[in-house]
User: Fold 2-oxoglutarate and iron-dependent oxygenase domain-containing protein 1 from Phrynosoma platyrhinos.
Amino acid sequence: MGTEPITDGNLESWLVVLGTGFGFEGFAKSDDLKKRREPHIAALRKVLFEEFRVWLSDVIQVELEPTVDLSCAKYEYTDTLLCHDDELESRRIAFILYLVPPWDESDGGSLDLFSTDEHFQPLQIVSEVVSKHKCRLSVSGWFHGTSVARPSRHVESPLPRSPHIPHDHEILYNWINPIYLEIDAQARIQEEFEDRSEILLKNFLQEKGHANTPVFLLILVVFRHYEKAEEESLPAILKKGMELFRSEALFLLLSNFTGLKLHFLAPEEEEEGEGRAEGSSSKCTQGHISQEGSDSRDDTEDPGQILENENDNQETGSSVPLCAGELRHWTKGCYSLVHDAEVTEFALDLLFFCGCQDWDMESGGFTSYIAKGEDEELLTVNPEDNCLALIYRDQETLKFVKYINHHSLKQMATQHEHTGFWDFSFVYYE
Assistant:
């Protein structure tokens, strides 16, 4: 068409356009190229959106607009683009121009088109780049035209929420490291949590309750992009673990850790704290759970006595704290996504990790918190064995688990008893 083709000689120019910025996708991507003035970019825009667009419109018998939608991306080792539908008003035809060295199927990085289920959700994921020595450089975009009817977007049913399960303080003494049951320790944790809205508690479970946890995680079902345990089929020790995170005693302990109103004994704050949901508490001065000897315990501080007297003391008319949770298995290819229709609200996230000794963040699998509508990452929670992460989020915060890539296979090769790692993932609502 009278325009100089793109050759290996000017690939460097495209790499300069990319710069060094990385988005949450995990690969380098340029901004929209519609205003760039470099000769090779201007020439490609002219070919695609003038001469080629007219020809394409005649072939497919669809009137295409002169809209410019063009960007370039660079994928290197372990980079991948997760499943997406690219649905956006007026998008009609996608194009990709590859600028790569000789490429084999074994290098990964393929464009995968896949089928969907009855809710138009993907049944497979996109291939990541597994070559350590090649760069997958591409220029891509869309031709626009009259919008076509789209199927309604499926909204997933949220995990069911439930109030606490009646359990006295003994369940905490049987599972949790005694240092976290000391009143002074809880006060220090609460002070740090109120300052930062997140905290990581290491060596959270006693070794006797934690050591065997990964070994029994065998009965799992595939649940979208990670594996979710079927609670009815879990061994007894894991059922008891799920009970721990739903127990009334833990609701009270979390109130003491965070100052949130997750139990009726957690007092209402006198003045609403900055950035907290209305009704959430700031300081918790009663109901602390202690591991001291029975002779030294004050009756007013004994959580067992507190829980037994709940029916006599609980305030009437107040909202009931709830929780929702699941036991998840993460291995290569697993991830979670931020959904457009996802409902966000004030909540306390709890993540307890196991089976992830010396986990490398380069493998992915970490939980990323971002501000809704922005690219800024607010917090990253990396899997750490026998650690409890608590994160308080507001209505403008979203989260996802980063895709676990090919790099993780090296670590898994050293763990003969299992692959990947597990987490208890719970959310608590005041």
The CA atoms of residues 72 and 139 lie 4 Å apart.
